[in-house]
Amino acid sequence: MAENASPFGLEVGVATLSQVQKQIGDKTSLTPTGINKYSGGKMFEVDGHGLNVEGVNAVTFIFDQADVLVGVLVSMPKNPKSLIKTFSGKYKVINNKVDNFMNYGSAQFSKGDTVIDIDAPHLSFVMEVRYLSKRLRDAFMQQSNAETAAKQKRKADSL
Questions:
Q1: Under 8 Å CB-to-CB from 114, ≥6 apart: which residues?
Q2: What is the CA radius of gyration of the chain?
């Protein structure tokens, strides 16, 4: 059994670009979308067709510089309550801030070295599910915090 989350049967932090190309590329077309600014690795996107998962609109696969899968971003119709129920049996619940009546909010889970985020915005019909290695998530948070601090400093210096 995989130690980390394994969306589409691909273990985050273990699967390689060649494995993703073989496993996913046989079902649907992988389109290169550039280099990820947090991991420094390649990114590829597929539409949901051919993945045999109902409702998946798009999937982005993020790799590190060694071509190891470090992130999977899944776009799908908003239904966080159902997904939380499914994920609660597979992953450790970190927090659940989904409004059950309005069916929006966010939730976070973990498994091994993977953090799984569900983000279902209030006035949207689409939600995003992010499977990220802790290393990628930390790099994202560190850079986001640095960018926010720099922006606040520029604002303070200007006023």
A1: 4, 5, 12, 13, 131, 132, 133, 134
A2: 17
